Amino acid sequence: MTTHEGVGINVTVNGESRDAIIDVRETLVDFIRVDLGLTGTHVGCRTGDCGACTVTVDGEVVKSCLALGVSADKAEIRTIEGFAESSEHLSIIQTAFWEEFGFQCGYCLPGMLFCTEELLKKNPDPSEAEIREAIDGNLCRCTGYHGIIRAVRRAAEETSQAQREKDELRDEEVWARPGERVDRALRGRESES
Amino acid sequence: MILDRFEYLRPSNVDEVVTAITTEDEVAIISGGTWVVQQMGQHLRRPKVVVDLSAAGLSGVSTNQDTISIGPSTTYTQLLEAGDTPPFLRKVASGITGGIQIRNAGTIGGSACFAYPPSDAPGALVTLNATMVLRSGDGQRKVAATDFFLDALTTALRPGEFLEEILVPIADTERIFSYQKFRNVTGSTPIVTAGCIASEDGLAKRVVIGGAATTPVVVDLAGDESEDEIADLTRSLISHPWSDALANANYRRHTAGTMATRAVRAVREQIEGEER
Ligand SMILES: Cc1cc2nc3c(=O)[nH]c(=O)nc-3n(C[C@H](O)[C@H](O)[C@H](O)COP(=O)(O)OP(=O)(O)OC[C@H]3O[C@@H](n4cnc5c(N)ncnc54)[C@H](O)[C@@H]3O)c2cc1C
Ligand code: FES
Ligand code: FES
């Protein structure tokens, strides 16, 4: 059970198995950003207050600045890079954030997105108070939160809608939709500029 | 990156934990890590050995006859989800701030062992009449929660000893209770907490104040005091006040009186509601 610095670990990151030699002094967020090069996980405070470093470890939403990287040996990690269902299509939650102006710079998105996902898993129809409670471990310096709350509401509605349609229709048809909407939104923004 | 070098150990059972922490070197135990990892990052804590409890099987809530056993590494989320969690403790866990992420990582035992005066756990465990089971190479010893918290950031734990289990008597967990917490904004650290569980004869006879003093303060009552008497008595019992950047000692002492009356009022109202 003894390990010194420079130990070999194996983690599954966004579905991919990765071997790494890690200095035991590295926090999980540094391991993810520096060693794995996944810089979508941000650092805002290193005191557990801002939520920008949020990832999931074995399915649990956590702040990765408060854990040692070596503790994640053999764990399954999801970062914001693995949030979308595929690299072409944003997820329903991401699309809702896009459409409702739920972000500006995007620094806070790791915490906002993972907490929204966790909320909707447990509560598909959250009230505004429940949404505020679910995101309250995350600080956003840009939006003033109103857009975020609208985005979570919209994500809830669209997740339920997708579920209803999924129950009725064939799977592929439904799951293509949010991505198509993003493509449209992206095209719209390009043509504006 | 943490500056100082250390040896990292992840024991897989309680005996291995004992072996790992039995050393002359400075040890830091990691339960959820939400305090200790940031302290190491800020060089406030420079252990030579870091012992990670995550694989040691120290989480979970279970009932054995007349006691509820709580593993020290049980997270707030696990407390909220476990069927055997005392309702009072579930209420406490639901109010922990820092978001889903902190409730998923922070543990009841980590908070108890850190003994930070404004934290929820110290006062909550004293309210529940909990017993702390401490384990070392010399075996086990049991310490009442009231005797576990010795001073701010100081517990009865000796070098080479760790918190193995928290025991809560069931009898206390089934009665009417109230947990009142004052904080500056919803998301901030508690300033003062007040916990009250009705006595066996159905009265509000014991209030436990957290955050106002360096350790939880027990306010024993006859049960028929007026609210002013409760507030005055509570304030008079804060002999070692806690003071920090969020609130000074006078403010905390005053607030303690107010929160004690609120806790008693809430219990009395529920009792009256039941009698009606
Ligand atoms: C943003 C944020 C918000 C927070 N909000 C709250 C709040 O609302 N209320 C509140 O009370 N707290 C709050 N906290 C404080 C804290 O994170 C929690 O109280 C948490 O429960 C601490 O537990 P842990 O397991 O993470 O502790 P760790 O960091 O793992 O451990 C804390 C200390 O206890 C020691 N230790 C741990 N387990 C044992 C053991 N079994 N035996 C001996 N020693 C042990 C460690 O060595 C360390 O010194 C907050 C923290 C953050 C970052
Ligand atoms: S960097 Fe981890 S919570 Fe801010
Ligand atoms: S979008 Fe910039 S911090 Fe939230």
Q: Would you kindly provide a written description of the structure presented here, covering whatever features stand out?
A:
- The complex is a heterodimer of chains A (193) and B (276).
- Chain A has helices spanning 28-35, 92-99, 109-122, 128-134, 146-168, 171-192, and strands at residues 2-3, 7-13, 16-22, 54-57, 60-63, 76-78.
- With 193 residues, chain A is α+β, with helices and mostly antiparallel strands.
- Chain A has 2 domains: 1-82, Ubiquitin-like (UB roll) (Roll); 84-193, DNA polymerase, domain 1 (Orthogonal Bundle).
- In chain A, strands 3-2-6-4-5 form a 5-stranded mixed β-sheet, sandwiched between helices.
- In chain A, a hairpin with a 2-residue loop joins β4 (54-57) and β5 (60-63).
- In chain A, α2 (92-99) crosses α5, α2 (92-99) runs parallel beside α6 (171-192) and α5 packs antiparallel against α6.
- The radius of gyration of chain A is 18 Å and the shape is globular.
- The N and C termini of chain A lie far apart (58 Å).
- In chain A, 41% of the residues are buried.
- Chain B has 276 residues and is α+β, with helices and mostly antiparallel strands.
- Chain B folds into 3 domains: 7-55, 2-Layer Sandwich (Uridine Diphospho-n-acetylenolpyruvylglucosamine Reductase, domain 2); 61-169, Uridine Diphospho-n-acetylenolpyruvylglucosamine Reductase, domain 3 (2-Layer Sandwich); 177-275, CO dehydrogenase flavoprotein, C-terminal domain (Enolase-like, domain 1), CATH 3.30.390.
- In chain B, 33% of the residues lie in helices and 24% in strands.
- Chain B has 10 helices and 14 strands.
- Chain B has helices at residues 14-21, 36-41, 76-81, 87-94, 99-105, 108-114, 120-127, 145-148, 227-236, 249-275; strands at residues 7-9, 27-30, 49-52, 61-64, 67-70, 131-136, 139-144, 149-151, 154-155, 161-169, 177-182, 192-197, 206-210, 217-220.
- In chain B, the strands form 4 sheets. In chain B, strands 4-5-10-6-7 form a 5-stranded antiparallel β-sheet.
- In chain B, β12 and β13 (206-210) form a beta hairpin.
- In chain B, α9 (227-236) runs antiparallel to α10.
- The longest helix of chain B is centred in the C-terminal third of the chain and has 27 residues, at 249-275.
- The mean pLDDT of chain B is 96.
- At the A-B interface, β1, β5 and α3 of A face β1, α2 and α5 of B.
- The structure holds flavin-adenine dinucleotide and FE2/S2 (inorganic) cluster (2 copies).
- One FE2/S2 (inorganic) cluster binds at residues 103-108, 140-143 of chain A.
